[in-house]
Amino acid sequence: MKPVLALTKGRVEKQFINFLQERGYDVQPLLDKGRKLQVETNQFSVVFAKGIDVATYVEHGIADLGIVGADILLECQPDVFDLLPLPFGVCRFAIAGEPSSIPSLRKQRIATKYPNITTKYFREKGKSVDIVKLEGSVELAPLLGLADDIVDIVETGSTLKENGLVVKEEMFSISARCIANRNSLKLKKSILAPLIESFKAEEAAI
Hints:
Subunit structure: Heteromultimer composed of HisG and HisZ subunits.
Number of helices: 9
CATH superfamily of the largest domain: Periplasmic binding protein-like II
Protein name: ATP phosphoribosyltransferase
Family: Belongs to the ATP phosphoribosyltransferase family. Short subfamily.
Radius of gyration: 19 Å
Pfam families: HisG
Order of helices and strands: EHHEEHEHEEEHEHEHEEHH
Distance between the termini: 31 Å
Oligomer: single chain
Keywords: Amino-acid biosynthesis, ATP-binding, Cytoplasm, Glycosyltransferase, Histidine biosynthesis, Nucleotide-binding, Transferase
Shape: elongated
Strand content: 25-35%
């Protein structure tokens, strides 16, 4: 029986495939998958999905392990076991806005895709803010007057710069994570342990 791995499509997918290749895994089936959403390799089965769906597949035991951004775990808090950080997908949460914005007398309004993370962060600072949840490009919100600032993931900062925004406050760093189904860790320990061990080589570097 092969382990089933759920992998976040896109940037994390490409970085994880490189990560596997560096550890001697045969990644050719993953590179040649085309539009397939399920792929078999010699070592495991892979399911490709959006980040939040990766967490859901792992939580419900469809996948034994998952590779997902820490933002999904922090925002959605799925019932999975957070095994370890991975040495890619490194970025940071930050508060950003227009550099010349004038502080308002009213409660600060923050636009974000991450209302739970944002609320928790400001609450821990003893500050109450109004949250505007957006699904798309949050950079528009301050420019159009919908919000004073935004909370978002920043990697290079180029998108902020191109839209005339600056980082006002660094919040915290995140990376990709390896997560596991709780029952799989117990029932499939013998087949999962070698795979998990091979991921741990650079854990100390995070």
